[in-house]
Design a protein that fits this description.
The complex is a heterodimer. By secondary structure, chain A is of the alpha+beta class. Chain A has 2 domains: 228 residues, Rossmann fold; 114 residues, OB fold (Dihydrolipoamide Acetyltransferase, E2P). Helix content of chain A is 24%, strand content 34%. In chain A, helix 2 packs across helix 3 and helix 3 packs across helix 4. The radius of gyration of chain A is 24 Å and the shape is globular. Chain B is mainly α. Chain B has one domain: MetI-like (MetI-like fold), CATH 1.10.3720. In chain B, helix 1 packs across helix 12, helix 2 packs across helix 12 and helix 11 runs antiparallel to helix 12. The longest helix of chain B has 34 residues. The chains are: A alpha+beta, B mainly alpha. Chains A and B meet through strand 6, helix 2 and helix 4 of A and helix 7, helix 8 and helix 13 of B.
Chain lengths: 353, 262
């Protein structure tokens, strides 16, 4: 039995359905991320797990217990908010010890736990500071320590890195992940940042308009997106129209070039046109001609440091190609003809919308 | 100096004179009790009077009780309106404004009719009952000021997120109100409290018609029967009000985070 289960969960506000038929099982100690654009229902789902919203229909179980209608303060859940939500009238130590005090722990126990948590978030000297005396990153660390101090059953993180600047965001996400692994606490993380989702999670739940589009490991989500939406939301993508030649062998025709795919073509008939996708990094410059090679004219090359993003024009349609910066070799020049090849497994058939 | 600036200076000087001239004249008059020289005799007389001390103390106790009751009514109301019932904000604001619209004399006659000796709840039949009725009347008078101060303070903090953060830590609603919300809107409560204090200390109509020994009726009595003491009392009342305003500015200017610093 899973540690956290959401079964047929739905949330409506009047006629507006915010979350539709949400089914998910999370194992103990797993790190699951809800990923999606604004308004896709990811935060509402998280808030239903926290107990701040009640599902209109469906059930939520934590550790075999039905908590659907249980008040938030009885669920033993730790939550970290985007806006930090530290209590401004309390010091860092008082903030971290708040939940322990509510739970009736002794002053000695609270002090020991607060010291332990401060060491864990690497802020041992800031116990007596007030939140307004801390930077954003420090406040979010304290918020994380406060959420973890009472040993919650589940840790919920509601876009905790969104308000921070880029460098702090990267370092804090690594810290959160390593802490989560060390403590083994079941974690649900909400974000609209695909990089965060892919780098931190055991599994990613991609949501759109209140529904789950795909659940899978970061590799699955990135390499084998099931829908057009997932493919375009996670990473950069070249959208192609492929004409089916032979569904059984995976033979297709793309812009007049013969190619093969490993994707299942689901009984498509010869002549059918199917949307397919290719990641820019799956394309490699080649001198060869033949199957799985597309030829185009270089329009533009943008320098990104380790990678150069080349924009090709293939029959008046754009095709993005990422090539490694090879130093002295330089970037492809505009006007130059470039052949790019790809592996059959990198040509993804987008069967869903 | 251009014309606009001269105009501004003239307007400011006239305004200042309009307020300060009577005050200076009153202060000067209050010092003339001893013939031929200035003295603080009028102030000494006032302080020596047992009635002054008793009525002032009575009004201070009434003011403190009023502030406590108003806070207990207003803080949870404003909190829940902001958190759970934002649609009711307009209605609650309208209700809290009513004491400013309805004349006090109408309120007090309504009270006497409702709580008179022949009513179901004859509060005016006993001293304690009348004191309580006066205090509840003051709560009504203080409501517009306290509600606005508290509401403004609540808007300056993220009530929803702080409440949810405390809930996720296992706190119940009473703990959240007293340990998380109240300390963070302290400046707003203090502003409301000082305004309420200033109103209660000088209030006349309620206290007089309910026949309570408050400071307002005492001021009126002295004004009618003495020459110099009323001026001294007027100056003291002004000083007290200004002190309250000063305290509001002192506490009102603090941010929730800085105000929370111990």
């Amino acid at each position: 039995m899973s540690f956290l289960t959401l079964a047929g969960v739905q949330k409506t506000y009047g006629a507006n359905v915010v979350v539709k038929d949400f089914n998910l099982s999370v194992e103990r100690g797993e790190f699951v991320t809800f990923l999606g654009p604004s308004g896709c229902g990811k935060t509402t789902t998280l808030r239903m797990i926290a107990g701040f919203e009640t599902p209109t229909t469906g059930e939520i179980h934590i550790n075999d217990k039905d908590v659907t209608h249980m008040r938030a303060n009885k669920r033993a859940i730790g939550m970290v908010f985007q806006a930090y939500a530290l209590f401004p009238n309390m010091t860092v130590a008082q903030n971290i010890g708040f939940g322990l005090k509510i739970a009736g722990k002794s002053t000695f126990d609270i002090k020991a736990r607060v010291t332990e948590m401060l060491a864990m978030i690497k802020l041992p000297d800031l116990a007596e500071r007030y939140p307004y005396q801390l930077s954003g990153g420090q406040q979010q660390r304290v918020s994380l320590a406060r959420a973890l101090a009472p040993n919650p059953q589940i840790l919920l993180l509601d876009e905790p890195l969104s308000a921070l600047d880029a460098r702090i965001r990267v370092s804090l996400r690594e810290e959160i992940r390593s802490l989560q692994r060390r403590l083994g606490v079941t974690t649900i993380f909400v974000t609209h940042d695909q990089e965060e989702a892919l780098s931190m999670s055991d599994r990613v739940v991609v949501m759109r308009e209140g529904e789950i589009d795909q659940i899978g490991s970061p590799t699955d989500i990135y390499n084998r997106p099931r829908t057009k939406f997932v493919a375009s939301f996670v990473g950069t993508l070249n959208h192609l129209q492929a004409k089916i030649v032979d569904a059984a062998s995976g033979e297709v025709e793309i812009e007049g070039h013969r190619a093969f795919t490993r994707s299942h073509l689901n009984g498509a008939r010869p002549g059918d046109v199917m949307p397919m996708a290719l990641r820019p990094e799956a394309l490699r410059p080649t001198d060869a001609n033949g199957d799985n090679v597309i030829s185009g004219t270089v329009e533009d090359a943008a320098f990104h440091g380790a990678v150069i993003r080349v924009r090709l024009r293939v029959n008046e349609k754009p095709l993005l190609v990422d090539v490694f910066n090879a130093g002295e070799a330089g970037a492809p020049q505009p006007g130059q003809t470039l052949n790019v090849s790809f592996r059959p497994e990198d040509l993804i058939a987008l069967t869903g919308e | 100096m251009n014309g606009t600036k001269i105009g501004a200076w003239i307007a400011a000087t006239l305004g200042t004179l309009y307020f300060l001239a009577p005050l200076i004249a009153t202060f000067e008059f209050s010092l003339r009790m001893r013939r031929g020289e200035y003295s603080f005799d009028a102030y000494r007389e006032v302080f020596a009077s047992g009635d002054f001390q008793a009525s002032f103390l009575y009004s201070v106790v009434q003011a403190v009780a009023t502030i406590v009751v108003t806070t207990l009514i207003v803080v949870p109301t404003a909190y829940f309106v902001q958190l759970r019932l934002p649609k009711l904000r307009g209605l609650v604001e309208f209700i809290t404004l009513l004491p400013l619209v309805i004349p006090v004399i109408v309120l007090v006659f309504g009270y006497i009719k409702l709580y008179g000796s022949s009513s179901i709840l004859p509060l005016t039949a006993t001293e304690t009952g009348s004191d309580a009725l006066l205090m509840f009347g003051y709560v009504c008078l203080g409501l517009p000021y306290m509600y606005r101060s508290v509401e403004t303070a609540l808007r300056s903090i993220d009530v929803r997120t702080l409440t949810e953060a405390a809930e996720s830590q296992g706190a119940g609603i009473v703990t959240i109100l007293f340990r998380v919300i109240l300390p963070n809107i302290r400046s707003g409560i203090l502003s409301g409290a000082f305004l309420t204090f200033a109103i209660v200390i000088g209030e006349f109509t309620f206290a007089s018609l309910l026949d309570r020994p408050a400071f307002g009726p005492y001021l009126q009595l002295i004004g009618a029967s003495r020459a110099y003491e009323p001026s001294a009392l007027a100056i003291m009342a002004f000083a007290l009000t200004w002190a309250c305003m000063g305290l509001i500015m002192l506490f009102g200017g603090r941010t929730p985070s800085a105000a929370g610093k111990r």
